Amino acid sequence: MRTSKDIIELLTELEHHIADDLEDQDLDFKKWDTKSRDQSVKMIVQMAVCMANGGGGTIVLGVADRLKGRKQAILGVPLEIDVNLLKKAVYDQTDPKITPVFEELAVPEGTGRLLLMQIYPGMPPYTDTSGRGTIRIGKECQPLTGTLRRKIAVETGETDYTAEALVNYDSRLISPIAMESLRNRSRKENAPADLLKLSDVELLNSLGLTKGQKLTRAGLLIAGSENAIREYVPGHNWTFLQMPSDTEYGIREDRVTALPLSVQRIEELLVPFNPISTYKQGLFHYEYHTWPEVAVREALMNAFCHADFRIPGPIMVKLFPDRLEISNNGGFIAGITPNNILHHQPAARNPLLVEALTRLRLVNRGNLGINRMFNALLMEGKEPPIIQEIGESVVVTFLKRELNAAFRLFVAEESKRGKIFAVDELLLLQYLLRHPEVDTATASVLCQRSETEIRERLAAMESQGYIEHGGTKRGAYWCIDPALHANLAGDGQAEKRRRIDWEAAKTRVLSILMERAKRGEPGLTNKEIRQVTHFDRSQAYRLMTELRGENPAVKPSGRGRYTHYDYCE
Predict the structure, then answer these.
(1) pLDDT at 22 over 70
(2) Does CATH number 3.30.565.60 belong to domain 238-348+361-399?
(3) Which end of the chain is more exposed for a tag (fewer CB within 10 A), N or C?
(4) Averaged over 158-178, what is the pLDDT?
(5) Is the domain defined by 495-567 classed in CATH 1.10.357.10?
(6) What is the pTM assigned to this prediction?
(7) What is d(CA 102, CA 86) in angstroms, rounded to the nearest whole number?
């Protein structure tokens, strides 16, 4: 949900972005159809349904989402439009009933009036009175298909496949080895001692894994024997593939085992390919793996916990020469996407299973697992995991990278001084070690934060001496502190290299413009300049502003996205 203050701040971004760039899971901009009030009302109803199914959000009415510039994009809502009638229309035309909250926002452009329609979270699925519905996924409203309806049922707790009671408790259905592994792992994670002292049946009862005298699917997934799992949870299995190439495998193992045994066995299979290395520098002594054990374990636990066991197909673990992939059937739920997963409210496809593992300290419901994955890799100077939704599966990829010893030592030394880096900070520092600078928009996407939040984070890092600030307003950017860069990169040439890169980019762009002018060809657009320089939009704009100041022959023409630059002697 966005406040009117949030929207006012976002509207300033329209000078440099189209509204579509600013949209998110919980925010959409819509133009008011002045030709047809009925079409506008229909659009409002559709958006109310879409947002309600997607967890709620804000629709800004009166803004064209494809035009850049406040004057061009902010058209407004006619003054005669009565918000009470709009509220009644949404209420009357939705099922179950949706009651939106409208706010008026005064602006100097267009009609001078915008409307904010706030849709608060409820109990989906919602449709219009004709039975049609959509759901907000990312920035889009997608048809409410059977698959998505099933997702909604899971998210709202309407159904939990793992909570279904299946068969009367019998010790023969339980694997003693699985129970032993479960206790050992939980003990290492400091699970409550009184919980682990219980007998097998008492422990399962205490965790809610039995209902009456019957075992649930979650109970069998956690502690069941192979035969019991095959019979009662046929969708649970896993496959490990060691892949010398993308088209063939060397080692393969297919198993049906209880969750703690599954994770244990996969970790054992990875051991020969994930050896321990030692780094020593002075008093600093650090052992590390190619893929940090913490990151791999969190990824495996996530895969097993959030798998959709109703969909045939195994948890897949594929080990390639250059990467490790872990995937599970069942896409993201509750509006979670790869672009918001770091900070989105956690949601469980299998609540009972997750709740039991949470009490055993094997998973964390506070969304710390993803942060731990990122942190374990970033603090070693490695790239964060790549998280994708491919079809009905979630795929987590760890790239094979060497330890950045200087960065790991830096993190350790800062820790001794009481500084514990957040994931945001590690992401920004790692980015700035690979790029000359970062602007607010890029940092916002990188850290999955709003621009307001990221500006606060950048300001804090600047005050701590990690980064430096340059430019003003929309041209603002941040660079890593030269002394810190020299320490982490080892060459002491951070500032010099940034300047060389910048000047080289200007020289290359000017050369292309001059060559094109000689041939009578058009110059370069901002997009083409970005392709040539590998800069982002703001950096390219700032580069061309500086180049024009140094060389009056470089002239812009056109407006907005159609702007291009020519060399005119």
Answers:
(1) yes
(2) yes
(3) C
(4) 91
(5) no
(6) 0.68
(7) 9
The rounded distance, in Å, linking the Cα atoms of 478 and 469 is: 5
Which has the closest alpha carbon to 516: 503, 498, 528, 505?
Answer: 528
Residues 97 and 332: their CA atoms lie apart, in Å, by 27
Examine domains 433-492 and 495-567 and report if their fold is the same. yes
* DSSP 8-state assignment for residue 63: B
The answer on pLDDT for 497 being more than 60 is: no
- Over residues 91-127, the pLDDT tens digits come to 999 999 999 999 999 999 999 999 999 998 777 889 9
327 phi and psi, to 5 degrees? -135, 155
Radius of gyration of the chain (CA): 28
Per the listing, tokens 């005064």 go with 106
Whether 216 and 163 have beta carbons less than 8 Å apart is answered as yes
Match 């940092």 to its residue by tokens.
443
CA dihedral 22, 28, 33, 36 (to 10 degrees): 170
With DSSP H G I counted as helix, E B as strand and the rest as coil, what are the percentages for the chain, rounded to 5? 45, 20, 35
Q: How far is CA 174 from CA 207, 221, 226, 471, in A?
A: 15, 10, 9, 65
Mean pLDDT is highest, among 17-26, 257-266, 430-439, for 257-266
Q: Which of 223, 215, 195, 212 is nearest to 359 (CA)?
A: 195
- What residue segments make up the domains of the chain, in order of their start? 4-144, 238-348+361-399, 433-492, 495-567
Mean pLDDT (the chain) is 89
